[in-house]
């Protein structure tokens, strides 16, 4: 146990009993406990394997390369359609964790083996993401915007494309694009 992480398990929150049990299970698998992104993260030789995090409706064990696991028990959940590698196992009660303990350990050990083997998730390339028509129109009519967008890192480009594609209404997409044009022209990402 890493004392820097203790605060996460000692603060008053809804899922205390459940996340403490997850911590015990994960540490039994021989992983190193660290604090990353404000959450308990467990590593093997410096590589992230699993993370514990809490939400309003559930707590979860996130497996960083979960997409590469053989999910024979059908318990891995893709958080959103845009999450490519990580998968969650969600819990709403301590009894679920206790019941699944041997399965959870098996999944964690498999995740370590995936890391040892050096396997990588084949990530979708930025050019494979949909460019909304409204944004394509702006790129076509504003060469400076096209140049600035192409100069952004692939991750920043993806962030914008996902942000622009999310709304169902064209008017909302256009509004988002207009608000972001100055940022793109300044070489900034969506959250910079």
Structural summary, described in words:
The protein has 2 domains: 111 residues, Alpha-Beta Complex (Aspartate Aminotransferase, domain 1), CATH 3.90.1150; 60 residues, no CATH class. It starts with 5 loop residues before the first helix and ends in a 7-residue tail after the last helix. It has a 5-stranded antiparallel sheet with strand order 1-2-3-4-5, with helices on one face. With 192 residues, it is of the alpha+beta class. Helix content is 45%, strand content 15%. The protein contains 7 helices and 5 strands, in the order H-H-E-E-E-E-E-H-H-H-H-H. Strand 3 and strand 4 form a beta hairpin.
Short description:
The chain is an alpha+beta fold. 45% of the residues lie in helices and 15% in strands.
Identify the CATH class of the largest domain. Answer: Alpha Beta
Number of extended strands: 5
Strand content: 15-25%
Low-pLDDT segments, ≥5 res: none
Number of domains: 2
Cα distance spanning the termini? 34 Å
Key structural traits:
five-stranded antiparallel beta sheet, 5 strands, 2 domains, 7 helices, single chain, 192 residues, 45% helix, elongated, Aspartate Aminotransferase, domain 1, alpha+beta
Task: Describe the protein's topology.
Blueprint: H1 6-10, H2 16-28, E1 32-36, E2 39-44, E3 47-54, E4 59-63, E5 87-91, H3 94-116, H4 133-141, H5 143-151, H6 154-165, H7 170-185
Helix pairs in contact: 2-3, 4-5, 6-7
């Amino acid at each position: 146990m890493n004392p820097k992480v203790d605060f996460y398990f000692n603060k008053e929150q809804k899922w205390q009993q459940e996340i403490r049990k997850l911590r015990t299970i994960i540490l039994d698998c021989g992983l190193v406990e660290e604090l990353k992104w404000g959450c308990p993260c467990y590593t093997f030789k410096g590589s992230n394997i699993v993370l514990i995090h809490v939400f309003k409706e559930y707590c979860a064990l996130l497996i960083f390369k979960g997409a590469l696991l053989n999910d024979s028990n059908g318990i891995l959940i893709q958080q959103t359609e845009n999450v490519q590698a990580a998968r969650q196992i969600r819990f709403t009660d301590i009894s679920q964790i206790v019941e699944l303990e041997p399965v959870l350990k098996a999944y964690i050990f498999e995740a370590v083996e995936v890391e040892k083997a050096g396997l990588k998730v084949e990530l979708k390339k930025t050019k494979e993401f949909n460019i909304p028509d409204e944004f394509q129109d702006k790129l076509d009519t504003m060469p400076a915007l096209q140049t600035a967008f192409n100069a952004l890192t692939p991750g920043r480009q993806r962030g914008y494309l996902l942000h622009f594609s999310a709304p169902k209404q064209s008017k909302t997409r256009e509004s988002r694009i207009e608000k972001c044009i100055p940022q793109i022209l300044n070489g900034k990402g969506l959250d910079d």
